[in-house]
Amino acid sequence: MIYFLYGEDIIQSLKKTKQVILTLQKKKPEAVFIKIGSDDWSVSKMEEGMGGQGLFEQSCLVFLDRIGKNKEAKEFLIERYKELVESPNFFVLLEEKLDEKLVEKIEKVAWKTEKFFEKPHALTKEERLAEIGEKIDFFEYADVFGSGDKKKMWTMYRAAVDLGVPAEEIHSIFFWQVRSMLAATLAGNEKDSGLKSYPYQKAKSSARNYGEEKLRQLAFDLVKAFHEAHRGQVDLYNTLEKIILEL
Description:
Layout: E1 2-6, H1 10-27, E2 32-37, H2 43-50, E3 60-65, H3 71-86, E4 90-95, H4 100-109, E5 112-115, H5 125-131, H6 138-147, H7 150-162, H8 167-186, H9 190-193, H10 197-207, H11 212-230, H12 236-245
Helix pairs in contact: 6-8, 7-12, 8-10, 8-11, 11-12
C-alpha cells in the first residue's frame, strides 16, 4: 500500500509525514522501519522494501523520502509503482515535485493521497502600494478628505509626511477631491459635471459634508497655497496642515 504525500509546502508535508509514520508504527510495532532517500536509493533497497529476497523477512514500513529527485529512482517509480501497491509492506511516499502524469498514476492506486501547496501570500496594503511605486493610497486619502473627518485626515496626513510623501502629491489629492465635489455640486446633472457615474455620485454625496461656500473657499485656499509655496512664500506642508485643521 502507498500513503502518498505530495506538494511544495515541504514544512507541512514533513510534519504530516512524521505523524503518519508514528501512527503506523503504533499500529504495527513489529514492522521494520526502512528509510530510503534520493542519496542512498538503490534498486536492491527498493526490492528489499517491496518484499523481495533480502534481509527483511518480516513486514516493513518503508519511508521513501523524496526519491523522485534521483533520476534513476524516478524512472523506477514510473516503471514499477504498481509493485509498491501489490507489496505486503506499507510505503509512505513523500515528494515535492513529480511529473503530473506520474502523480496522477500514483494517486489512482494509492491508499491515500494528501497534497500540500503553499497558500499565496496576501499582500499588505503597503506591499500593494510598493508594487506600483506609491507610498499612500490616492483614493483612500481623497475619500477621507471628502468625509470631512478632520481628526482622521490629520492623522493620515501626518503619516504621509512621515513616509516622505511630497507635499505636492498630497496637495493634488486634496485639490482633485475638492474639484470633483464642486463639479458635482454646481452641475445640473451627471453629464454636465464631466464625471463618470460612480465618481459623480460619490463626489455629490461627499459635497454634502461641506456645502458650496466651503468648497469654493477650499478650492481658493488650495490654489493660493500651491502658488505661494512655489514662489517660496509659504511652506506647503504647513499650509496643508492648517487647511486640514480648519475643515
